[in-house]
Every structure is written in C-alpha cells, then in structure tokens.
Amino acid sequence: MRATIASLVSNALLLTQQAAAAPTDTDTWNETTVDISGDSSADSFSVASISDWTYRRWNGANYACKCYPGDPCWPSTLQWNLLNATVGGNLQISIPPAASCYNTFQGLLGNISTYNAAQCADVHANYASEQWQIDLPTAGLWTYFTNDTCRPTTKPTDSCTGGYFPTIYIKAKTIAHIQAGILFAKNNNLRLIIRNTGHDFLGRSVGWGALVINTHGFKDISLTNSYRGACNYTGSAITVGAGVQAFEALSKLHSLSPPKIMVTGECATVGVAGGLVQGGGHGPLTNFYGFLADTALEFQVITADGALRTANAKTNPDLFWALRGGGPSAFGVIVQATYKTFDDYSSSGTTFALGPANVNNNDTLWWDAIAKFHSYSNHFVDNGLYIYYELYPGLSFRVQPVVGVNKTAAQLEAVLQPLFNDWTAMGLTFDKTTTNYSTFYELYNALFESEVAGDSALTGGWAFGKTDVAINNAGIIDAFKNVLNNGALLVGHMWNGGHGLPQSQWADSAINLRFRNVSDKLITILPLSGNAPLAEKEAAQRVLTDVVDGGLRAAGPNGAAYINEADPFQPNWQTAFWGTNYPKLLQLRQKWDPTGVFYSVSTPGTEKWEQIEYSTRLCKKL
To answer: Where is the signal peptide (predicted)?
Structure first.
C-alpha cells in the first residue's frame, strides 16, 4: 500500500488528472494587476510574496491561496526529500482508513494500489472504534468533513478518492520534527494541520491537500506533589506530552497513593494538551475547578516561527493567556502542558431515562416532563452536580450520568428529589439507579460511555445562561422541540464554569466570561452523509445555522457558544465564542502568527480566510 514520497510527489508536478481535485470551472487571474502587499486591518493576516501563492477567482471574488499539488509553488521533489530526511524518514503519503478495501486509492499525488483483504477485514471490524481511528495518522473520527469518498466497502472495484483528507503527513517523533514541519509549511505556504487524536466535530483535523503534523506519539507523563513554577501555586501537578489522552493521564494519577484527578473532557479518548485546552476544556469536574484551561500552569509551545517557547504567568504571559481557551490551532503547537491536579474523592452517580412507555406515548406529557427537568438546571449546578443527557426524536430522553463529586448516594438523591417528586405528581413512572463509588475515577470509567467513530453529521450548539433558564425555560423547551422537529439531536451538559472557581480567576484565561454564568451547554447534531450532493449540504447547513441553532440562540440571549462543539458558521461567531475577549485575541494572533501559518475555522483572525472551490483550497479573500 505504501508508495515512496519521491515518486508520488514527482507525479504531482506533472498531474494531468486529479481524482479529488478542485472543479475546472474556476479561473486563475493576473496577479500583477492586484495589490498583494497585504491587508493590515486587524481581521486578517498579511499576504506573502507573489511566488508563494496561487491566485484564484471564485464566485466573483479574488483570492490568494495556499499551495497545492500541481501549483507552480508546490515544493519540488528535492524539497520533499530533504524534509523527509530532516524528520527521520517519517514523512508519508496520507491514505484514507478504508482504502485497503479498494483496488486503487486515487489521491492528489497519483494512484496507489491499496487492496489488502486482511487489512480490509480490520477496517470493517474497527471502523466505529474511536481508539482505532485515533491511532491512525490522519483519520477524522467523524467523517462529514472528509467528504466520505472512501468508506468501507465490499466492492474493491468501487472508487476511493481522497475527498478532503490531507495529502502528506509527518509522524513526529521529536520536537525538532514538529519544528521542521511548521517551517516547511510556512516557507512553502502549505496548508498545515496539527493532529493528535482527530477527535473533532468541526473538521479541523482534516483538510484537502494539507500537510499534517501528527503529535500522537508524544506520550510522556510526569507527576509532582509540589509544583515549583512561575505562579504562586505549590500543590500537585501533572505534565503531559502532546499525545497523551485523558484515560492515560487519569490512570497514572489514580495509581498514586492517595489517588489524584485532573480536569478532562467527559470522553476518555480526548487528548489533554491540544485542542481541548485551547478551546477551554469542559468536563465532569468543571463545576469544581473550572475548565481545563483554568488549571493550566505552563506550556511548552512551538510558535509559527518554529521557535520552542515557554508560556506561563511570567514568561510570554500573553501567549499563555491566549492558549488557554483562545482557539485551537491558532497560536502555536503545544508539545507539553502542565496542569494542577486534585485529591480524588468518593463520588456517586445516577442514571435515569424517560421513553414512550413512561408517558403512555403521550407527546405532551413527555415534553412537560422535559420542561420540568430543565427548569432545575440552575438548582443542579448550584449544588455542584454535573449532568450529561441525550434528547432524541421518538420520545427518547436519557441521563447518564448525574455526577455528585464528594457526595454520597443519599446526598446526590436529595438534590434530585424535587425533580422526582414533580415527575411523580405528574403521573410519570421511571426507573433510576444511584451508585456509590470510592473515587471519581471509578465513576468516570463506569458511567461515561465510549463514543462511536465513523458517523457523519453537522454539529452545532449553544449554552444557556442561568438567567435564560430562570426567565425563559418555556422558550428554551420550544427551541428544543424545534431542534427535534428539524431532524436534529440534542446532547446536554449541565455545568457552570464559575461555580467552584474564584471570581478573581475568571479572566485569567481567554475563555468567554459568559461561561462563568451558564447552566446547560448543548450540542446539536444534524445527521448528513459527507458525500451528499452539494445543494443538500448547503441546505442542511442553513437549517443548522438559521433554524436549529437559531432557535436556541433566540431562546438564550445570555448564553454563548463553545468553540469545540458548535457551528463555526454561525453569525457573530467572534462574540459567541469569546465575547469581550475577542479584540485582545485578534491582536495576539497578529503578534504570534502574522502570516497565517496555522488555521482552523472561525478562530481569531480568520475572517477573510475561506475554503473555496467546493471546500478544497484554503484561500484569503483579497
């Protein structure tokens, strides 16, 4: 299946056909007639010299684009071979996970014979496994943004094209490999993607024609009981490499005597040193300690100039602030992160559900029950609970789990009892299970379920302020009905990012201050095949942005959107994601990445960047 870098990159210089290439109904234009000196306005990056860019015209506008196979600015075979030598032979062609089920993979760099019966059987057995996909170098766990052009098949003669998968990747083994990749992308104006796990709902781990730097191999973990650093904190801490996942860090902490914990996401496979912390990082412990970003003590980070820098409260403090919630893949590549850790406590968890049988298939009664549940959002988070729930069409409501950290089962049920009393008075029947655990770690492993990879959907979301719940819960439930009536699903996370964190620390990170006063953060999921017709995709995006999420935004004017789990194409995303912090983040993006080496959609300074020609080329509008 493997092909040499030299042969395929040479092919790219002479391409006469590209199976996954951009459409042919576009025009190049005479760059000498355009001022490409760069736009110095605060909402864009400067443009490099003419020779570094490909110039395109799309939908009546002019663009300066990154370099792709077949462009005059695409690096030569010699340049690629030199990069391969620099990174220790770890430069490889990116091939979709299911390519082994096809006779031929048709990529931007040429065709590769890929069929392998044993590997194809492995694909069919494991395609839905998160960890299997994570351990691949360039896979996207959810496939909508890959364009789904190479899914598992039993027909090897079918077509497997690259879709929106990256083209080449570096499986980095050292910090120097990452630095070399960043500088190569910068000097050759390539689209660059940083990937650890690929656990991303917004397609930021994949991109047509891109160079990927895979950091998943950086698995070092070290612990201390008495941190000595740039801040006044002297407690316990953990230092993790860029590839460490939550389950690995938590397992290491649990092995201590006494055991420790740290803030992570609710999904155990998510990495803890990359996009999670750069987006903020909420999870079951957010009510107690804030976001993962709030617990960060120091980063080792490679910036757009290829330099390895320390970022903490005293060294590069502006970069330290921005890296804590200011946007994934926006300010640098975190290769090492140090976080506070905390004592682990005995905890309790509850699960319950309402289905058609619980309400005698009465739609009105079911929605009344949901409204009652949601009316207690503020009560739940004010009492330190974390709640994960799912709301699906067909009268399907499932809560797994309610988490009571440092609470007995009796204490947890006492907080929930007012809701259960109301449901009983409404004539509902329901089952609930509450269990004591000796540690939070044991609860986490027992009650939080693994997610499924390989699905395709558009993702949006919104968080409701406590004020919204207090004065407009009925309007919120109407918005929930609107979500389900338009074919979408709801996943809720009840927490408050300011509940256990002193107010004096709320502004120490770039996280939107509105998250300090929310009680329910939602993810909306609109199922849609990645290879659906373009018109269908455009229509679905409008439904998600304007109808599904639009109703949530209208019902929750005091809320916010979480950058890692929301619609990046929503109006006023700058304010929705970062609120009053956005102007400062914009200035810092200009300082730390003035030419746009890094990119992920709807992050500070990307206003003029678009993926044109049917979501292929990454370009800046001129």
So the answer is: 1-21
**Strand locations in 322-367, DSSP E?**
333-340, 342-343, 347-354
Which of 574-608 are b and which e, b meaning 16 or more Cβ less than 10 Å from the residue's Cβ? bebbbeebbebbbebbbebbeebbbbbbbbbbbbb
DSSP-assigned letter for residue 560: B
3-state secondary structure of 347: strand
Would you say 467 and 558 are in contact if contact means Cβ atoms under 8 Å apart? yes
- Mean of pLDDT values over 584-609: 97
Q: How far is Cα 293 from Cα 549, in angstroms, rounded to an integer? A: 26
pLDDT at 51: 60
Beta-bridge mates of residue 617: 612
The overall average pLDDT reported for the chain is: 92
Q: Is the bond preceding 258 in cis, omega lying within 30 degrees of 0? A: yes
Q: What gap in Å lies between CA 184 and CA 83, rounded to an integer? A: 8
CA angle 546, 551, 556 (to 5 degrees): 125
Residues 455-480 as b/e (b if ≥16 CB within 10 A, e otherwise) read ebbbbbbbbbbbbbbeebbeebbebb
pTM metric for this prediction: 0.93
Euclidean distance between CA atoms 35 and 350, whole angstroms: 62
Which CA distances in Å does 351 have to 269, 386, 430, 534?
A: 22, 12, 11, 41
pLDDT of residue 31: 30
Q: Residue 52: its pLDDT value, please?
A: 83
Nearest to 616 by CA among 61, 206, 195, 134: 206
Provide the 3-class DSSP secondary structure of residue 517: helix
Q: Residue 392 and residue 251: Cα distance in Å, rounded?
A: 33
Cα distances from 511 to residues 125, 170, 209, 281, 415, in angstroms, run 40, 31, 32, 10, 29
Any idea which residue has 């409701």 for tokens? Answer: 464
pLDDT band at 40 (very low <50, low <70, confident <90, very high): very low
- What is the structure's pLDDT at 7? 53
Q: What is the pLDDT of residue 305?
A: 98
Please report the pLDDT score of residue 120 as a whole number.
98
Question: Using an 8 Å Cβ cutoff, are 358 and 398 in contact?
Answer: no
- Per residue in 101-156, pLDDT tens? 999 999 999 999 999 999 999 999 999 999 999 999 999 999 999 999 999 999 99
pLDDT at 47: 42
pLDDT-derived band at 366 (thresholds 50, 70, 90) equals very high
pLDDT value of residue 14: 38
Which residues, listed in sequence order, are joined to residue 63 by a DSSP beta bridge?
A: 56, 621
Report the alpha-carbon distance of residue 261 to residue 343 in Å, rounded.
6
Contact call for residues 329 and 202 (beta carbons, < 8 A)? no
Q: 192-195 and 211-214: which strand pairing?
A: parallel
pLDDT value, residue 287: 97
Dihedral sign, Cα of residue 399, residue 404, residue 407, residue 411? negative
CB 569 within 8 A of CB 541: yes
